[in-house]
Write a structure and sequence with these properties.
The structure is a homodimer. Chain A is of the alpha/beta class. Helices cover about 35% and strands about 15% of the residues of chain A. Chain A is built from 18 helices and 20 strands. In chain A, helix 5 (about 270-290) packs across helix 6 (about 305-315), helix 6 crosses helix 12 (about 435-445) and helix 8 (about 355-365) crosses helix 10 (about 375-400).
Chain lengths: ~550, ~550
Amino acid sequence: MKIGLAQLNYHIGNFESNTNKIIQSIRDAKQKGADLVVFAELCVCGYPARDFLEFNEFIELCNEAAQKIAAECQDIACIIGIPTHNNKPEGKDLNNSAYFIENGQVKAIVNKALLPNYDIFDEYRYFEPSTQFNCIDFKGKRIALTICEDLWNTIENPLYVTRPMDTLIEQNPDVMINIAASPFAYNHDEERIAILSDNARRYKLPLLYVNHVGAQTELIFDGGSLVFDKQGNAVDELPYFTEHTAYYTLTDTGEITFEHQTTIKPQRDSDIQQIHDGIVLGIRDYFYKSGFKQAILGLSGGIDSAVVCALAAEALGPENVMAVLLPSKFSTDHSLKDAKDLVENLGCKSEVIAIEKITNAFEEALHPQFKNLPFNIAEENIQSRSRAVLLMAMTNKFGYILLNTSNKSEVAVGYGTLYGDMCGGISVIGDVFKSQVFQLARYMNREREIIPENTIIKPPSAELRPDQKDTDSLPEYDTLDAILVQYVEHRRSSAEIIKQGFDEETVRKVLRLVNLAEHKRYQTPPILRVSPKAFGMGRRMPLVGKYLT
Amino acid sequence: MKIGLAQLNYHIGNFESNTNKIIQSIRDAKQKGADLVVFAELCVCGYPARDFLEFNEFIELCNEAAQKIAAECQDIACIIGIPTHNNKPEGKDLNNSAYFIENGQVKAIVNKALLPNYDIFDEYRYFEPSTQFNCIDFKGKRIALTICEDLWNTIENPLYVTRPMDTLIEQNPDVMINIAASPFAYNHDEERIAILSDNARRYKLPLLYVNHVGAQTELIFDGGSLVFDKQGNAVDELPYFTEHTAYYTLTDTGEITFEHQTTIKPQRDSDIQQIHDGIVLGIRDYFYKSGFKQAILGLSGGIDSAVVCALAAEALGPENVMAVLLPSKFSTDHSLKDAKDLVENLGCKSEVIAIEKITNAFEEALHPQFKNLPFNIAEENIQSRSRAVLLMAMTNKFGYILLNTSNKSEVAVGYGTLYGDMCGGISVIGDVFKSQVFQLARYMNREREIIPENTIIKPPSAELRPDQKDTDSLPEYDTLDAILVQYVEHRRSSAEIIKQGFDEETVRKVLRLVNLAEHKRYQTPPILRVSPKAFGMGRRMPLVGKYLT
């Protein structure tokens, strides 16, 4: 039996585009002589469709798409993911389903049993879990079809009380197929391979796994669809961050064979390379799927905006990136020079708009209120916010999307100005710690100097007052980031972090800053997620909570 | 048996305050000769504690609080709500539990079975549902203790596959006690009474129900704790929007008696009165629990900022409200006069800061880029954003919290400037449609004119260009709001709304505007929730989705 795995880039709610892609893949697969072609979880509507799922019309549109797809399935079968109505009177209104379609008909429906409801996942918000499990017979083979998380209930730390494959295996299947929507994080590939390999080995069955590729606002799907033999060896892996379809033959002895060269990597890509590739795809899809082409950003001469500018140039083309230099009286000459060097290295567009007259106008207008009170964070923020007003005016006039350039360390401790440098349509490096931003710059300079060396080596500064340095307010970034990894990504408490050897006062200060900044993060743009715990939908904190503050 | 119901205002993560309140109530109850005092769901840590629950230390702090509370329970019993570790190896890490504490010991633990995971609720993110149900014997009575949603699985449209009381009733209990954390919406009181009454009638048992009161950022808990006789009649209802403790005697014949006058209302408060009272509590608690006292807002002379200003004055005292008039060259004389009249009516503080020189400075700075392109939304937004920069500067200098004044109609269709009038620490009327804002103004003027009559009767305008009216861009608010109620609150699709008799073109335009504004709403402040479907955590939409756009 010849099986195609179609790893495609869907668009939430864009039924026309998704359906056309699926139909085109079915036609290609038929030409290639495939018996079955497999698409990803909820491919018909895109993932995550969130509360669109609560609209009956949206579910009807999914159903109409499935009918169009079914009509194409003559002399070939396909598996698609689709939300369907729960037929039982009790429970949630929907199931997260897979249709097995053959000869124009839905021949079998499989419903997901294990519904992820952690981090960015909200599946129990919409779906009723399945409690019945049946294999599908097709061309003399018996298929154990499951949906994503259904294979993820690990033996060591089971998050769920059931395991669908434990029932399905009793029906003596020949192969496992799993359709997924499993978003990228820099450590996700190893975990995914390990868990799926465990399943193949435990149930002694070959396993074919199809993932989404492409970004949906903050969530990036990396693809990396996988094929395992029944010993649990990964025998093939589809490419990362790009659409791809590949074909495999399931032999009568239960072996998986294929004609192309395996793309299994002898060595995994580095975290930084994956983060880089993921962000480039994230920017590109955010713009494409929003119907925009051109980005704008403020370029300070510092490393964060430099890296964001270079990533945007790679994603959209330098001709579609407008870098605006917005010097104040506190901007240093080297900052302006570093920014100009970057613009030249990239070949992107640029403008210079000085903000001093604007900040003067604000300070004059506020003179009766501020009188002779000393310069403080109020005046610092006026600079940052004046820049945001200028960038947003350019955006409104010319149809750009403003890129936010805050890094994860800043976002964590609230080192940024709300409605100032925290503005933007999408946060590009808001899930990348400052120490990783440096690594990203070095990685992007691997062939030639794109990010000016001086931008990388100079001490970070917001340049909102004379001789300001980030370290005036914050610990050194290496220390800060190490503490933040423990608190934010590993969710360790202060006592545990201090026990690891960090200075107690520093730990308490950092955790306090993180918790006090919740109200700022609440109003910031969606952040491209590249880590297992990004700020945004995956981390939900009370604002008025009094814990570690 | 004498039972106290303690309806208290907790603060998320503020263990010291919560524990002290609970202990004080236990002491009071003992003095009153009570046998048992009942507190609300998850009272120890506050509700919703969200991802604080993922920190071990947070759960330990809950446990420490419970130990302190238990130590107070000599010669009296209490019921408290607390998150506890799930002892089974499978499933989520926590249970949403109730402790029955007697003589310093936890005598029984009840775990919640039905975990709400819709709208603003995310309980399945943290908690494993219970599957075992046992009554608690105390002083010759058998208590069927359940937690909130456990009684909400309606017969007509069951959201869950089990019903804990169906098991508990087989053990022949004498009374039902339900501890809850059920947030306010203007239609929630009737629904709550109906569902709880149904339970009392169905199981033929008296029912005592304790709710939270007080606001946690956007969520307002209205109290309204209830007592039903075994015929399902509501015999008492605790007051709304205020802390209160009341005592009841469960007689040997299973009747509920009490010595105070019942506060059951012969007629429910109007929706607008409830919204008013809820918002006042919402503002007050947001400031108090954030450790702030003073509010600032921009006062335009229009009805939205006028109503917000008056609500803030009521919540915080007029001496703690700073109204800033920020006229531009497009501001009309009557707007300035209306704003000044309001300030005088309220007795709040005010300042006038003209923005023309500032907007001129922006336009001059942008002249090389904008050249002679016509005045459009870019220049309109510069005005709105210049005001925001001024208000935030005042906030940074003097320690105010900026109040957002957008109404729900504007928020829905994106009729507002991101980083401009959409700024603020908390959105006061973002869940109140424009047509309800007029009703609110009339309600607030019920005894004397607070909101100037001219503010109420003049046609709404943003005054960002000459002779601008809201109706230049939007349908009349009565039509707009009626469509929005169907789409946002009732989640009807376009076809259903058109079928109700609305003009097709208008419906499609409105739904398109709503869906295109998701990216703006993503970055707006938390909105005090007064309806069953507010923008914010309770409504989760994709940003790059292509559905009805």
